[in-house]
Amino acid sequence: MEEFNPHLFQDDLVAVLDAAGVEQAALVCQSLGGMAGLRLALREPHRVSALVLGDSPLAIDHEGMLRNVRRFLSEVQASELESRALSAGFVQQQPELAFLYSQINLFNPAVHSPRQEAGWGQRLEHLLSPDYLLPLTALDELDVATLFVVGEQDRVVTPNVVRSLAGRVRGAAVATIADAGHSPYFERPHVFNRVVADFLRRHVRTR
Q1: In a domain? residue 1
Q2: Model confidence pLDDT, tens digit, residues 150-178
Q3: Mapping DSSP to helix (H, G, I), strand (E, B) and coil, where does residue 149 land?
Q4: 121 and 25 Cβ atoms separated by less than 8 Å
Q5: How many structural domains comprise the chain?
Q6: b/e sequence 163-177, b meaning 16+ C-beta within 10 Å
Q7: What is the CATH number of the domain that holds 22?
Q8: Range(s) of the domain holding residue 126
């Protein structure tokens, strides 16, 4: 499970930016992606013009966040991971899209491959081990325009936890998306895109 290391994630992100010749970028990070985005913004803030953190546990040492994520992992099986992460209303009203969501996630072999040495829950739990957690005070040092986005019905990274985390970041904004669970970008894309676009227009200069 050594590849499940947030420090490697940020190095991969830097490698992608370098390969594309991108000196600075606005990062829009969903869920586990926020672990990489946050660490890059802390380590090399000059490379991040703005940071959007969507429903991300961040791998931060926050008691409430860790408790919520571990409770969620203990309650679900891999076969129902995606449907339980979505809001109940979305699964009922948009069964085709809910099915598509689950099928897209099957492309992630680290979560779903039976050949992996550890179960999906163990691998995700590994990312939140004490060796990888950033101290909560790290958020006090974040000096990048930051927007936290959270689904109102997210059971993995709950709105109250997101507000608590955002309160540590100087000038951070919080957008709560109604009628959405862990993936507002998928469940309510028009709302998500509008919120993110408005934020980027205010904080990112275009050439």
Answers
A1: no
A2: 999 998 899 999 999 999 999 999 999 99
A3: strand
A4: no
A5: 1
A6: ebbbebbeebbbbbb
A7: 3.40.50.1820
A8: 6-203
